[in-house]
Amino acid sequence: MSVASFARNILLAGCGSIAYKLWSSHSRTSAPLRRILAKHNTSTGPKFYNGLTNRKACAIMAQMRSGHCGLNSYLHRFGKADSPYCECGYGKEMVQHYLLECRKFKDQRASLRTTLGTGRMKMEWILGHPKAALATLEYIHRTGRLQQT
User: Fold this and answer.
1) How many of the other CB atoms lie within 10 Å of CB of 68?
2) Which terminus of the chain, N or C, has fewer Cβ atoms within 10 Å?
3) pLDDT tens-place string over residues 67-84
């Protein structure tokens, strides 16, 4: 290996670690995804997304995993929603609330719980495992909450 390529590799490695530190320290956007990925046996990259049916499904899961989706808590930050709170009246409409808590979608959630099992109704499982991703996408479809207008 030449000195130039060795220096290039060190520089790239340093940039990667700096970028990772910046990403992991940014609390607002990276925290939800970091919590999901911190658990054991969660999938990332192609291991996760190759199991999904199409590009739209991949986009929806990426949005849900990052928290950058069409829910009121995110839209309110940009003035696209009047309030960050859910229409059900029981908290901010964030991904966790939408998937696990919202009273408006308890029937759809019951179907998701039946498919996944009660012990797997955790954010890390719902958004971190390819097997659960398909059931989660079905839940999202049944609620109609994230349908584009």
Assistant:
1) 15
2) C
3) 899 999 999 999 999 999
114 vs 111: CA distance, rounded Å: 5
The predicted model scores a pTM of 0.75
Q: Is residue 70 part of a domain?
A: yes
Question: pLDDT tens, 98-108?
Answer: 999 999 999 99
Domain assignment present for 46? yes
Q: For the stretch 83-112, what's the b/e string if a residue is b when 16 or more beta carbons lie within 10 angstroms of its beta carbon?
A: ebbbeeeeeebbbbbbbebbebbeebbeeb
Residue whose token pair is 């940014």: 26
Residue 116 lies in a domain: yes
